[in-house]
Amino acid sequence: MAARAERHHVEMAEYEPGLGETASLRTRMKRPRGYDPEPMDLPPLFQSPPRPLAMVRWLVTKFMWPQSLLWIAISVVIYQLFTPGLERFASLGLGDIGLLWLRNTVLMLIVIGGQHWWLHMRRSQGTEFKYEERWLAKNRKTFLFNDQTRDNMFYTLVSGGGIAAVYEAIMFRLYATESIPQLSSLWAIGAMTFAVFWIEGVHFYANHRLLHVDPLYRWAHALHHRNVNTGPWSGISMHPLEHLLYLSLPFVFLVIPGSPFIVTFCLVYLMISPSPSHSGFDRFKFVGADFHGGDYFHNLHHRYFEVNYGMLLLPLDKWFGTFHDGSQEAHEQMKDRRRSTADLA
Q1: Which domain, by its residues, includes 176?
Q2: Which pTM does this prediction carry?
Q3: Helix 69-82 crosses helix 260-272 at what angle (to 10 degrees)?
Q4: How far is CA 341 from CA 8, 210, 300, 338, in A?
Q5: Tens digits of per-residue pLDDT, 61-83?
Q6: Domain total in the chain
Q7: What's the mean pLDDT when you consider all of the chain?
Q8: What contacts 70, CB < 8 A, 6 or more positions away?
Q9: Mean pLDDT of 266-271
Q10: Cα distance between residue 137 and residue 156, in whole Å
């Protein structure tokens, strides 16, 4: 594990900012190439002292608007208009799974492909707000087809979309045969839909930490981490073994009440929400305005490997000592942890 991390650190050395500068509290990192936003704060509920009212405002204006509400809205459209009726899954067949895979493929081509076209093909905003000034890799043998984008698309559409379709069909079968508890109230479904974000925060952190332990890292997660400089198609470009873990969120509803819509929402959210967070851009410029785009918190994970395993919504990284807020101080603390680990190895 230590040797693998050290190889990653050597690869990343030329991208590390200002390592000779004196660290100061909450000082913004400034790399020679690329864009670093201001350091991040924990959500208000988890600051000291906790600020519950500010947390409500943060959830509405920062977390839910606009991306999280957009994922819910897309899921409603997908479930109502493009998902076969539940009765069809009472006798599950390959054709049913195929329809869900086709739906997933079209959805991702539109949502993820649209972002890739706007940001990386049309290059509508150049490198403004781009974490890395370099563009996605071409003619590199570490990727399938010697091309990062084609490699990412293959794993996303074939493995990701396919396994998501299988999981959704299995859950629909269980709901159709009334084998698992199901919510019936629209209010309860709405509340559980909101709760999915928090459940996924725990689910993602747990399986992500697991994937950073050998041999799972070598067998599976290393494929995703080839994407140091990420693009929209990098989001769920994963080994099939990692997809089996990452997309397993709907199985939480084997033991707690859910609904067919919540299953669809879980999988739509898991398939498309990583595309802006891996887009490589902190903000998107469109029609003369710019708005929040990428996820600096997760971008730091791709750059420095053993930080920010979870999501900013739940400060599990803070509690377990793997938090990097994008400040020079946090960067120095990370380097101290690396030196301590190397000394013990």
Answers
A1: 86-294
A2: 0.90
A3: 120
A4: 14, 19, 19, 5
A5: 999 999 999 999 999 999 999 99
A6: 1
A7: 90
A8: none
A9: 98
A10: 17
% of the chain exceeding 90 in pLDDT: 77
What confidence score (pLDDT) does residue 5 get? 42
For residue 197, which of 205, 186, 185, 209 has the smallest C-alpha distance? 205
Q: What stretches of the chain adopt beta strand conformation (E)?
A: 283-286, 289-292
Rounded CA separation 250/263 (Å): 5
Domain membership flag for residue 317 = no
- Model confidence over 87-102: pLDDT tens digits? 999 988 899 999 999 9
Distance CA 220, CA 234 (A): 15
DSSP 8-state class, residue 307: S
At residue 54 the predicted structure's pLDDT band, cuts being 50, 70 and 90, is very high
DSSP string, 276-291: HHTSSBSEEEETTEEE
Is 17 inside any structural domain?
Answer: no
Tell whether 94 is covered by a domain: yes
Which of 181-200 are b and which e, b meaning 16 or more Cβ less than 10 Å from the residue's Cβ?
A: eebeeeeebeebbeebbebb
Q: Is the pLDDT of residue 19 over 60?
A: no
Q: How far apart are CA 316 and CA 202, in angstroms?
A: 8
Cα–Cα distance measured from residue 191 to residue 91, given in angstroms and rounded to the nearest whole number? 30
CB contact at 8 A, 143 and 137: yes
Q: What angle do CA 164, 169, 172 make, to 5 degrees?
A: 125
Does residue 300 fall inside a structural domain? no
